[in-house]
Amino acid sequence: MExxxxxxxxxxxxxxxxxxxxxxxxxxxxxVLLILPEFYRWTMPGIPKVTFSQPVILVVFLGLLPQIKKYxxxxxxxxxxxxxxxxxxxxxxxxxxxxxxxxxxxxxxxWYLFPYIAGKIIIExxxxxxxxxxxIIICLFFVSITSVYEFRFAMTPYxxxxxxxxxxxxxxxxxxxxxxxARVAGPYGHAILAGCILVIAFRLHRWMEWHGHWExxxxxxxxxxxxxxxxxxxGLAAGVFMTMVRGPWIALFLAxxxxxxxxxxxxxxxxxxxxxxxxxxxxxxxxxxxxxAAVGRAAAKTVAQESAAYRKELIDKYVDIAIQRxxxxxxxxxxxxxxxxxxxxxxxxxxxxxxxxxxxxxxVMMIFGLVIxxxxxxxxxxxxxxxxxxxxxxxxAGLFVAIGFSVGTVYMGMQLIPIFAMLVGWxxxxxxxxxxxxxxxxxxxRPTMAAKFNFQRTVA
Length: 460
Description:
Layout: H1 7-19, H2 21-35, H3 54-64, H4 68-71, H5 76-96, H6 98-122, H7 129-153, H8 157-162, E1 176-178, E2 181-183, H9 191-210, H10 228-242, H11 246-261, H12 267-293, H13 303-324, H14 347-355, H15 357-381, H16 392-406, H17 416-431
Antiparallel strand pairs: 1-2
Helix pairs in contact: 1-2, 1-3, 2-3, 2-7, 3-6, 5-6, 5-15, 5-17, 6-17, 7-9, 7-10, 9-10, 9-11, 9-16, 11-16, 13-14, 14-15, 15-16, 15-17
């Protein structure tokens, strides 16, 4: 019964043969990735364990191969992404042997490299920015709406529908509670991942709303005198709230601040003021936060303080272990675990433990390097921006700030990984666009049937 994970891949193959890789990415891969859980896998001896989205992105990648020469432009993020994937594979082979390295490498290709390539080639070079964003936002709006059931009854409908096909695979992902409410996880396994993903969707949607890329109303709800964009805003905001996750909430606040800079009359001046405030206020707050977390879990007075103390103790106990094998780490499942602290709620530390500091370097370079380059581009574009419609570069920079902060307090897994990879690829291609092209939306003809067995898609 687990073989049902192959059904989306078969659909993708047929769709790709008819309409091409670009349409398959938009109309098959994105919905499958965002709506179907990735914690279910088809297990067969001798081959990697497969999730719902992985066969689909493999089809998309194969379909894009004939078009890479036309659309690909090398950039420094390519070397970071490829370097990270290769180093993680070598690390796993060194620490756990061929079989585990084979399984991890397949995941790395399907979750990191292929989504990165698709995001880099399709979204900007093929002029699919608005279509891709609409598909992502509508899928996550759907997740937010369906998650109301989980918020009320503490059971995700995704597990209710699919657990029967995957005995014993879904039971690990249970609904957790905070302040007496169920923390919504949707199809992402954990509320933390759901929170991060919905924060990304919310900020992308706000950019779409500011620039008027939504239709006035839902076609099926013409009698409802609320704009389509406003309904989606409320739905995504409710989804973020229902996850009850403090880290992604703070990350959303930080992303909003970065984006708000682009809405000032003088973004450069606003940015300098923000940096000054961070230095004046942030340093004392940082010391206060350190003292708040340094009391230890035993002396913590609240659940929030205990959580902060736990994260502080993680660094104290695991940094020395990570340093012992600093270059290639200990392996994905073979790093030494402290039984009192089995959960590593810091993705930078977890990467260092599993795969070493080289991987951490590539990961940090992609996040913070893109933040710097996107803000620099945004400031250059600011003189052409209309107030109230900040550059996309500010929104993308805010997303990487949000991700960079979130993964310092939680882990990154499941669908958040390919979403991150797509954002990196998209941003890399976006930075190569001429600045005057940013405001232009390329209009393409509706997909037509491609020649039989021809993966190539002619752009209208």
